Amino acid sequence: MNKYILSILVENHSGVLSKMAGLFTRRGYNIDSLTVSVTDDPTISRTTIVVSGDEQITEQIVKQLNKLIDVIKILELSPQKAVSRELALIKVTLEQSTRSFIIETVNIFKGNIVEMNSKSIIIEITGDEEKVSSFIELMRPYGIKEVVRTGLAVLQKGSEMY
After folding, report:
1. Same fold? 2-77, 83-154
2. Rounded to the nearest 5 degrees, what angle is found at the Cα of 32, between the Cα atoms of 73 and 127?
3. Are 4 and 53 in contact (CB under 8 A)?
4. Is residue 116 classed exposed, middle or buried when 0-12, 13-18 and 19+ CB atoms within 10 A define those classes?
5. What is the pTM of this model?
6. What's domain 2-77's superfamily in CATH?
7. Which segments of 39-135 are extended strands (E)?
8. CA distances from 64 to 20, 39, 51, 74, 117 (A)
């Protein structure tokens, strides 16, 4: 199954996200990742949705989203034509014997230590999905207590705009 990234500009008011989510629910489509934020124009929000499926399913999703009144524009972004980033916070068990390795790995991945005490460390990692997943896998043997991932924030490369 392929992953598709949809960048959707919508009117920024209450109920818009609920309408979009309802569309996915009614059609039985699963959302892999969802990120919403206001744009430089406070009346417009950007919703980035990552879905798995085939081209036909994605086309159907786009058609259905375009029917919603609050949707201004939809852009399907390929990984080659977009810059994408994700933020993750990972809480890892910290022991004296593993402390230096964990800190060194955080530095190699250009992460940040957000909080540390004698029993755990909270690490912030930013990058593409692969980088974040790789870091999480490296930390797994040391005892991951919690992980939270933001989902993708994506912009189209080049000077083109919506």
Report:
1. yes
2. 85
3. yes
4. middle
5. 0.81
6. ACT domain (3.30.70.260)
7. 44-53, 71-77, 82-93, 112-116, 120-127
8. 9, 23, 14, 11, 49
| Integer Cα distance of 121 and 55 in angstroms | 41
| Alpha carbon distance 17, 104 (integer Å) | 40
From 30, 11, 9, 20, select the one nearest 65 (Cα to Cα): 20
The dihedral over CA atoms of 9, 53, 151, 45, expressed in degrees to the nearest 10, equals 10
CA distance 74 to 59: 11
Give domain 83-154's CATH superfamily: ACT-like. Chain A, domain 2 (3.30.70.1150)
Read off the amino acid at residue 148. V
Task: Report the amino acid identity of residue 117.
Answer: N
Nearest Cα neighbor of 90 from 64, 116, 57, 51 is 116
pLDDT digits (tens, 9 = 90+) for 1-52: 788 899 999 999 999 999 998 888 888 888 999 999 999 999 999 999 998 8
Alpha carbon of 20 to those of 49, 63, 69, 78, 109: distances in Å?
Answer: 10, 12, 11, 21, 35
Residue whose entry in the numeric block shows the structure tokens 């957000």: 114
User: Are residues 112 and 123 in contact, defined by beta-carbon separation less than 8 angstroms?
Assistant: yes
